[in-house]
Specification:
Length: 495
Amino acid sequence: MTTIASGTDTLTRDALTVLQPGFTGTTAPDWLLRRLGQGLASVGLFGRNIASPEQLAALTAQLRAERDDVLVAIDEEGGDVTRLEVRTGSSFPGNNALGAVDDVELTRQVAAELGRRLAVCGVNLNWAPSADINSNPANPVIGVRSFGPDTDLVARHTAAYVTGLQSAGVAACTKHFPGHGDTAVDSHHSLPRVDVPAETLSSRELAPFRAAIAAGTRAIMTAHILIPALEADHPATLSRRVLTDLLRGELGYDGLIVTDGMEMQAIAATYGIERGSVLAIASGADAICVGGGLADDETVRRLRDALVSAVRAGELPEERLADAAQRVRALARWTAAAGASDAETPADEEVGLRAARRAVRTTAAQPFTPLTEPPYVAALTPVANIAVGDETPWGVAAELSRLLPGTETGTFTDEHAGLAALAAAGPRRIVAVVRDEHRHPWMARALDTVLRTRPDTIVVEMGLPQSPPRGALHIATHGAARVCGRAAAEIIAGE
């Protein structure tokens, strides 16, 4: 059973309860276990904390030995954003692939299997799905994390994902409210601004969140974006108008409101994490996500003390902090009950691969003859955004090596990529792998160079397929998960 240290007063316990910190390492450090005994109710996990399903299960058991109702959260979207399979690539395609298939029952099945795997490992809160509408193809941080550009499509798949995930006893955290799709700035680096009328916001961005609420999403994550039509002075995460008036009042949402990472520069560089956290709770947020970049006891202490000091100074009503803490505890009770009732969710190990295969779209000017000799895979690789990270492998080379032993590969990242790829490939057939060609002029030019000399090149687009298809065969996978690479490799090799 949970034992709260007798020396921890109610105010301090509540301040700890609303925090969702991270840590480094694959076992829980002593400071984290001590904080759980003092009232900390949630822990966030990232790729750095996970080595294997068995290790993850042992880690969550270690946390629950200290506090049996702890919320263990993770950023596991499947597709490009994976923590469970950070070193191998995901067994599940991401949202854009599921949107391309547009089979809501398949989306539900994928989310249910992902939820089952999380639950087996002891994770009970998933910071997913992304309900953002990909209305701006130049968006540097959403992209294939979105189900697509169509409002109704995103809404129905968001609802299906929430239903599937929560059927396994794992709480969904639908994000990024009120919608991060129509931005050209990554909020990890600075504060994006969305200049759309309130009417557009209501009919477009908010529709998937209405669907998620109707489906019973247990949590919603805020976006660090400025929307002047709603609130001219503060980003959504720090806006009472957005969180309390709109989300709670107009949309009738009664679950947990979680902030996006407070160390992201949209907040940290403008307000600082302490002031930002106080403003977020005062505005209606219930849980402060921090730990992707700041992952130590000092961060927890700073945020705890900032919240306590704000209450004592009259800047944050004690009742608001208590209400936030109570919502965290209510979600913990739901996960305990849901986990117990859904312990026997049947496994569907191949659902991710089935979905990835269905998501592939091919374009060829002439009938394509599958390869029988090992090719050269030229990966034209952009800089990964922080949400995806650069530690997760992607592409088709690993899967092609399995199907066509002797396949060679190289990574190319600059203006000379085209000529370098041609030189490295020699006489081998080239498979050029790109990711969001439309957003990277150097990548498009490299592909121009390769195709001029080698028009028989096969092109695999593993980001958003916005550029016109070209090459002897163009394969759009709608994501860079491992299963997406396998689906493309099967086509290339005629499997």
